[in-house]
Each structure stands twice: as C-alpha cells, then as structure tokens.
Amino acid sequence: MMRDLFDTPILPGLHAVENFVSQTEAAALIAAIDATDLEPFRFQGWLGKRLTHSFGWHYDFDTGGMGEAAPIPDWLDPLRRRGEIMAGLAEGDLVQALVIRYDVGAGIGWHRDRPHFEHVFGISLGAPATLRFRRRIDDRFERANVPLTPRGAYHLSGPARHVWEHSIAEMDAPRWSITFRSLSEKGRALIASRDR
Length: 196
Known about the structure:
By secondary structure, the protein is an alpha+beta fold. The chain is 20% helix and 43% strand. It contains four helices and 13 strands.
C-alpha cells in the first residue's frame, strides 16, 4: 500500500512498487507489445487513441459482453505469476491480460474497470505517468495522485478498485502498459451462463 510522508495510506486497496521488472525485461516487453496485433480501443462505436490487445478474455464495450480471446502468451506468463504473488492471489487467478501502447496524445479517461473483473494488476513501461484517482463526496471530488514509474507495478483491490475512479492524462511521450485482471463473481457467472 502506498503511504504519504506521515505513513498514512494514500488509498486503501492500492499497493505499488518500483522496479518490478528490470531494464532488460522492460525493453523485451515493449518489443513484444509492439509486435502484437494492436488495434485502437473501441467504445460504443468510438475509436480511442490508445492501441490495445486482450488475451484470455475480452470485454466488448459495444455489446457489454465478454468473449474469449487468444490465450495469454508465454511471454506474459512469468509476469502474471509474479503479479499474483504480489497481489496475494492463487496461481491462475489472473485470467485476462490487456496490453496497451499510449502514443503521444493518448490517455485514458475517468473510469472504474468493468464489474466483470475483480483484482487489477498493472505494469507501467516507457514514459512515467500519473495515475489519478477521484471519488465523489456530496457535490465535490476527493482526489489523489500516484506516480507510475517506468518498470513499476501496482495492484488495485478493495476501495481503490471499487470506490475510486482512475485515469491517466494524455501522454507527451510513448508509454506501454500490461494489465492483468481476475474475474469477479459477476464475470464468472457470465462465463458459466455462456457455457450452458
């Protein structure tokens, strides 16, 4: 959990670390993401500036449904397991992976991850960024900012995952990310209903 200068948690449910991957690993991961079949993010007919590709499961923002995607590739498996260990999850809990390239001018607006997913584990590569958080209290927003250092990682659970929204401002330099997610009860139920 990230803490301020007075050792108070910045956000309950947020845990971040620096240097989660080495410089050599980071370079290889960036090359692997760039070699992936990336496509513009789609949201209800709108195309975003960031380029994405999902593995394991894909959430369709046009239909509101989940679909099976290509299996998580071997080059992501070691990171997935390390993420599960950092997040205190069982092996195999992180079943979805999303790789993203943020070119100059790309960012991500205010949102909470879809309720089909539970734990969110991310790795930040390339340019540094700020993960911005906000939650509404009456007629105003309470806000918090967390630096995403190159090669660092973060885990969202509890209030940081479900109560607070997060976003990343438009980038002025390229950045790449890898996000792993576990399924929530809603996500598991949806998949089970598809298999019937």
